[in-house]
Design brief:
By secondary structure, the chain is an alpha+beta fold. The protein is built from 16 helices and 18 strands. The chain folds into 2 domains: 135 residues, Beta Barrel (OB fold (Dihydrolipoamide Acetyltransferase, E2P)), CATH 2.40.50.140; 258 residues, Bira Bifunctional Protein, Domain 2 (BirA Bifunctional Protein, domain 2), CATH 3.30.930.10. Helix 7 packs across helix 8.
């Protein structure tokens, strides 16, 4: 088998042959009268009037020899067979084509449409143009890129060889388009908030740090989709807002976690967490039906149906039932003992991290769809205290296949209580908890001016990954890779 360097040298020689005939290997444009999907949609009309059409695309298959050649072209909208006959194009042109064209090249062909004896729609072409000469070969057709590392590094080859993979990312685009359309239809205004922040607010996660040269100060990449900024907009009279954007967390990677990902957050004035639960349930159902035409999915060895009744699971009572620990009253040592008996490893030994670890252990066996509700205040620094129980909050998370795929709550708008919650987070930071939330005292000042009661909610591409039953890296076009040494 020839090496890539040998293949490159042969194809460089073909470029020289093209140049000798005055043909550019990388022209700015070539003939193309129709995208390939339009040729298929209008095939009967286009084939009956014998008009000459032009199509362009990458050669993904090339077979035949002697008097006839069959070429499969793919332009990203579809693929079609192009047929080259020696008695039509001529001896010299046939030989020239054979000596200069390879699988992987982009070409344009012009000719008439017909169907083969096997009823395959085809173009019988009488002329062609080189659009782009490839120097390196495509992966072997039947195996493609097997190594995941290579697939992610060379996503362009992964996509070139797999129509299914291209359709996956079209569904991903439709996922976000559908969500955006629903929110706009329901009166939400799309906004943009900073991705560089002096303090990271809206979530508990370790941020990425960088330096702002002009201001000579360190800043952070955001860890939420502008939660504290969007709530400032509510205070300013924009009563419903949302943003879809990129988020960054300097944490570990897994099937459900990446350091850079896309999320959505919305905020609605004069609504509470019960509104959020009903709204998001209907939104999830509509997205599933629009993209997949169904509401039942199997992922992570769980099966769930979004159309069925969504159960409500009380946070603290559920942890007590599964582990025997009342997270509202247990000591930190009792929590550690329980985690040790369950063989659960954890990072961070303060009450907040221990509580969260116990919950995540319990969560993994919930198939859903379910709402876990009424989280303890210690793990919910921005959630409003429950109106009937001061130990818990008006918060909900959506659970599918044992994982959280959505988080919302009645927003805490009492400046006194928010100040106390931030002070608790500062104590955690001072004790070395890198995931504790940075206090934003200017945000507290905003609350002192007054912010209406509101519901906020966030979800992201993890939901799409669950619909597809794939790890997050597989549904991300260009996941961050370690640099090759």
């Amino acid at each position: 088998m020839a090496s890539q360097e040998e293949i490159r040298n042969v194809r460089e020689e073909k470029i020289a042959v093209l140049k000798k005939r005055g043909i550019l290997s990388y022209p700015s444009s070539v003939k193309r009268s129709h995208e390939i999907f339009l040729i298929h949609e209008n095939f009967d009309v286009l084939s009956h009037d014998d008009s000459v059409i032009s199509a362009a695309g990458r050669i993904i298959a090339l077979r035949g020899q002697g008097a006839i050649k069959f070429i499969v072209l793919d332009d990203g909208t579809g693929h079609i067979q192009a047929v080259l006959k020696r008695d039509i194009i001529g001896e010299d042109e046939m030989d020239f084509f054979e000596n200069t064209v390879d699988i992987g090249d982009f070409i344009s062909v012009s000719g008439t449409l017909f169907k083969t004896q096997r009823e395959e729609r085809s173009i019988l072409f009488s002329s062609w143009e080189m659009a782009t000469k490839s120097l390196l070969p495509l992966p072997e057709k039947w195996h493609g890129l097997v190594d995941p590392d290579e697939r992610f590094r060379k996503r362009y080859l992964d996509l070139a060889m797999s129509q299914d993979k291209r359709e996956l990312f079209r569904r991903r685009a439709k996922f976000w388009q559908t969500m955006r359309s629903i929110l706009i239809r329901e009166g939400f205004l799309e906004v943009e908030t900073p991705t560089l922040e002096i303090t990271t607010g809206g979530a508990e996660a370790e941020p990425f740090r960088t330096h702002h040269n002009d201001f000579d100060m360190d800043v952070f990449l955001r860890i939420s989709i502008g939660e504290l900024w969007q709530k400032r907009l509510l205070a300013g009279g924009l009563h419903r807002t949302f943003e879809i954007g990129r988020e960054y967390r300097n944490e570990g990677s897994s099937a459900e976690h990446l350091q850079e990902f896309t999320n959505m957050e919305f905020y609605a004035s004069f609504e509470d967490y019960r509104f959020g639960m009903d709204f998001t349930k209907q939104m999830y159902r509509e997205i599933a039906k629009e993209i997949y035409g169904k509401t039942e999915f199997t992922t992570r060895s769980h099966t769930f149906d979004l159309a069925q009744e969504w159960s409500e699971i009380e946070y603290a009572p559920h942890v007590l039932e599964v582990t025997g620990v009342n997270v509202l009253t247990a000591t930190e040592q009792e929590m550690k003992n329980a985690l040790a008996s369950l063989n659960v490893s954890y990072t961070g030994d303060n009450r907040e991290r221990l509580t969260d670890t116990l919950w995540k252990y319990c969560r993994k066996n919930i198939a859903g769809p379910a709402f876990v509700i009424h989280h303890p205040k210690i793990v919910s620094p921005l959630s409003k205290t429950h109106r009937e129980n001061s130990e818990i909050t008006e918060r909900f998370q959506i659970i599918l296949a044992g994982s959280e795929v959505g988080n919302g709550f009645s927003e805490l708008n009492d400046p006194h209580e928010q100040r106390e919650r931030f002070m608790q987070q500062q104590r955690l930071l001072d004790a070395g908890d890198l995931e504790a939330m940075m206090p934003d005292w200017e945000y507290v000042e905003m609350l002192e001016h007054g912010m209406p009661p509101a519901c906020g909610f966030g979800c992201g591409e993890r939901l799409f990954a669950f619909f597809e039953d794939l790890p997050l890296r597989e549904v991300t076009l260009f996941p961050l890779m370690k640099q090759k040494i």
